[in-house]
Amino acid sequence: MSIKSIAHAAYLSGLQDKDLYTQNTKNFRSSQTKSFGSTIEDSLKKVNELQIEKDKMIEEFAVGKNENVHEVMIALQKADVAMKLTSAVRNKVIDAYKQLINMPM
Q1: Nearest to residue 61, comparing CAs of 49, 47, 75, 51?
Q2: What ranges do the domains of the chain cover?
Q3: What is the pTM of this model?
Q4: What pLDDT is recorded for position 32?
Q5: CA torsion, ordered 54, 57, 59, 60, to nearest 10 deg
């Protein structure tokens, strides 16, 4: 086997790998990619669900249905962390928007 045929075989193998990589990347992107708006919407729905769960657990604890204070505190902390994260993301988005608006054209 000559060096030319080995190089040609390696080149063809590389092309096949590249085509396979490109195809897999396109399939992954099309199946996993969500728009920015839908990602934000999903996140806000999750934060809202945590807030509703927190309120429900506080009400159940107040009327005596749930006596496990640990579960109530965990729900409170989850909702608090989610709300703080949402506020932080909102603040960063607003800051980025202000920077874009103030850019000279």
Answers
A1: 75
A2: 1-33, 34-105
A3: 0.61
A4: 61
A5: 170
Whole-number pLDDT of residue 96: 93
Amino acid at 82: A
Taking a C-beta distance cutoff of 8 angstroms, is the pair 86, 43 a contact? yes
Integer CA distances (angstroms), 38 to 27, 41, 53, 80, 98, in order? 20, 5, 22, 23, 23
Q: What is the DSSP string of 18-82?
A: HHHHHHHHHHHHHHH---HHHHHHHHHHHHHHHHHHHHHHHHHHHHTS---HHHHHHHHHHHHHH
Name the token pair of 22: 């490109």
What would the pLDDT profile of 19-64 be if each residue is shown by its tens digit? 666 666 666 555 567 788 888 899 999 999 999 999 999 999 999 8
Residue with tokens 């919407």: 41
